[in-house]
Amino acid sequence: MRQEFAAWVLRQIDIDENWLSNVLWTDDAHFSLNGEFNVQNSRIWATENLRIFTEMPLYQPRVFWIVIDFYLLKKMDQRTCIKFCVKNGIKCADAFRMLTVAYGEATLDRSNVYRWYTMFSEGREDVNDEERAGRPSTSRTDEKINVVEKMILANLRITVREVAENLNISIG
After folding, report:
1. pTM (two decimals)
2. What is the mean pLDDT of residues 50-63?
3. Which of 6, 12, 61, 149 has its CA 20 to 30 Å from the CA of residue 104?
4. For the purposes of burial, counting CB atoms within 10 Å of the CB of 53, is it exposed (0-12), middle (13-18) or buried (19 or more)?
């Protein structure tokens, strides 16, 4: 994943040599919407104590980073490619070879390519996974959601583990 990102960055620099100057590099996981920043990550060096105090609200609106599952995106891309091959009469073995060239190590395994090829051949149109039955959730009820909301409002520093223990539910 890091190598792919590095290769992508290098391609962007080849396209626009000033591309790096348009990127905000930071170690913060979130940014406040009113321009404040996390002072724990900054240091001001001075010969004397400046004694500057700024009053600000305890909780500020923030923008959080969203992690995109690139593997999931590649999986969906490959399924779309398989669907394209089916619609154009390209054999499954050839489709698998083309996916291997295009996606390298991130290619779906042979059995999944053949399975999706068969499903698209039989008329399937959707590239997304179908809902799975699984075990029904007993922890997500309106009653428990209300209890969790009350617990959080009563104690803003409560941990997920404490909530789970209090409600006798598992985490994850």
Report:
1. 0.41
2. 60
3. 12
4. exposed
